[in-house]
Amino acid sequence: MTFLGGLGDRLREGLRRSQEHLANGLRTVLEPERPIGEALYAELEELLIAADLGATLAADFTNRAREEVMFGTVTRADQLRPVFRRFLADTLQSAAQPLNLDHRPAVVLMLGVNGAGKTTTAAKLAAALKGSDRRVLLAAADTFRAAAIEQLQRWGERIGVEVIHQATGSDPAAVVFDAVKAATARGTDALIIDTAGRLHTKANLMEELAKLKRVIERQLPGGPHESLMVLDAPTGQNGFAQARVFHEAIGLTGVALTKLDGTAKGGIVVRIVRELKVPIKLIGVGERVDDLQGFDAEAFVDALVPPP
Question: Are 212 and 179 in contact (CB under 8 A)?
Answer without folding.
Answer: no
